[in-house]
Amino acid sequence: MDVKNKALLELLKKPGNNSCVDCGIESPEYASYNIGIFICSRCAMIHKGLGAHISKVKHLKLDEWEDSQVERMREVGNLAAKLKYEQRVPNCYRRPKPGDPQSILEEWICAKYMREEFSRPERQTFLSGNMEGFLMKRGKEDARYHPRKFNLSEVDGTLKYYVKETGEPKAVIALSDVNVAFAPAKLGHANSLQLSYPNKEGVTRHLFVYHDDPQTIITWYTAIRCAKLHSLQVAYPAANETELLECLCQDFTCEGWLWKTGPKPSDSFRKRWFTLDHRKLMYHENPLDAYPKGEIFLGHMMSGYSVRVGVPPGTRDDLGFTFTVRTPQRWYYLSAPTSLQRDAWIQCIDAVIDQPLTAHDKITANRLSRNKKYGNIFSR
């Protein structure tokens, strides 16, 4: 390692340079020397795909550097680059974090350096409040995907989709109620989303969609988030923006297979796909079910909600990695495949019930309490 490489490692120690400028992961090993930023190996691959006319990438230790290139890194650095390329990122835009789906990271980097959306706000089409187009949607009763027209209207506060392009909408979804989560592993498609919302009966409905173009799916996702924020600001004028941002579309807190008993301690365990969507703990027979078999509202710990390792004496414990979710109306006996997964579920649920309820949480609780379809749906 020569003098130039050592100089680059010294630059890494400066504030802002010790984490990837694009995803935030610590100890970046690469740099884009024409832009003047330090990036991780994952982001470096995306930068290389942009083309050398946009981003020129080198490894900090393994590649040879010219004096002018090192000087460029010294002149700019991550903090200065963020001021230029992220100066007008809307609060409703989801900034990527380590471990996020690839499409989120790719489109964030393309938006920053190729399309320059955050230094030229007129290019931010997702802020228009309206969007219309086709997405491939999974059938409710079968595994086939069909093109369906979707329409987003911030003025109406709705997201609609149509089976027939010129007919009446199949569903009219209130933006204040919808959650949109990325689902590449579940659907087996890199650019896929899961939309969840309460139907007319108050039961959560899941829609599974994808698009072959990552920019299109990210634009839909971001447009829904931004329109939802504006709808929430109208619905809750006294709420601060930080509280409302927490209500925007989020990936599921925790998801995976668990075993669940019936209400009687002697009931056997049955395998179910569990999804923790903020304060809703839902369980399904299969990951791609259109509806959950049940929904459990998780309130605040001071209102009688808790989660504990193990199950009460006399309860079947065939699987070993059991835990109990307690609500004021019922105790739920669950089991995870491993102790690590059990502990992860307990940690996620604990974090939820430790937080005070927001105004939007109380609406969700009231909706679930009015739902009579499932006898095991409770709220408080």
Q: Could you please describe the fold and organization of this structure?
A:
This protein is an alpha+beta fold and 380 residues long. The chain folds into three domains: 3-121, Annexin V, domain 1, CATH 1.10.220.150; 125-242, PH-domain like, CATH 2.30.29; 254-375, PH-domain like, CATH 2.30.29. Helix content is 28%, strand content 24%. It has helices at residues 3-11, 41-50, 67-75, 77-85, 102-114, 184-187, 214-235, 241-245, 339-353, 359-370; strands spanning 30-32, 37-39, 57-59, 130-138, 145-153, 158-162, 171-174, 179-182, 192-198, 204-210, 254-260, 270-277, 280-284, 294-297, 306-309, 322-326, 331-335. It has a seven-stranded antiparallel sheet, with helices on one face. It has a seven-stranded antiparallel sheet with strand order 14-13-12-11-17-16-15, sandwiched between helices. Strand 6 and strand 7 form a beta hairpin. The protein starts with a helix and ends in a 10-residue tail after the last helix.
Order of helices and strands: HEEHEHHHEEEEEHEEHHEEEEEEEHH
CATH topology of the largest domain: PH-domain like
* Strand neighbour order, sheet with most strands: 7-6-5-4-10-9-8
Largest sheet: 7 strands, antiparallel
Which CATH class of the largest domain applies here? Mainly Beta
Given helix and strand content, the structural type is alpha+beta
H/I helix tally: 10
Weakly predicted, low-confidence segments: 372-380
Our Rg estimate from Cα atoms comes to: 24 Å
Classify the helix fraction into a percent range: 25-40%
Mean of pLDDT: 92
Shape: globular
